[in-house]
Write a structure and sequence with these properties.
This protein is mostly helical. It contains four helices and no strands. Helix 1 packs antiparallel against helix 2. The longest helix is centred in the C-terminal third of the chain and has 33 residues. It is elongated, with a radius of gyration of 16 Å.
Length: 125
């Protein structure tokens, strides 16, 4: 990774969290919506925290663990966003950009984890 890439991903995951917060604030105040909203709020805002923890990781396995946690949270965020749309709580066009960003972040974290695992395998040979 270049020295710029971590900062870019740090900024990107922070912006992602802020977009999730804004979505949550905009949701209707019904009980079911707030329950689903809190789920997406929790999972979507934790991605940046996992990235930061992983970026400070002391070892490759530590980094992998944190980044795989970020991947789990991203997958969960994708589920909750999809459920909000399928339940008719928000329109697809409203969350499509967030879903797109979720999938792009999944691809980025998957690539990083795969590269670190390959590097670890080469060291063991």
């Amino acid at each position: 990774m270049t020295t710029e890439a971590p900062q870019d991903l740090r900024t990107r995951t922070t912006e992602f969290a802020l977009r999730i917060v804004r979505l949550y604030v905009s949701l209707p105040k019904s009980t079911e919506t707030q329950v689903l909203g809190k789920q997406v709020l929790r999972s979507g805002t934790s991605v940046g925290a996992h990235y930061r923890e992983g970026h400070r990781g002391k070892s490759d396995p530590d980094i992998i663990h944190k980044f795989e946690s970020a991947l789990q949270e991203l997958d969960e965020t994708d589920f909750w966003l999809d459920l909000l749309v399928r339940a008719g709580i928000v329109s697809a066009p409203k969350v499509d950009p967030l879903i797109k960003e979720t999938n792009e972040l999944i691809a980025i974290f998957t690539t990083i984890v795969t590269k670190i695992k390959k590097r670890m395998n080469k060291k063991q040979q």
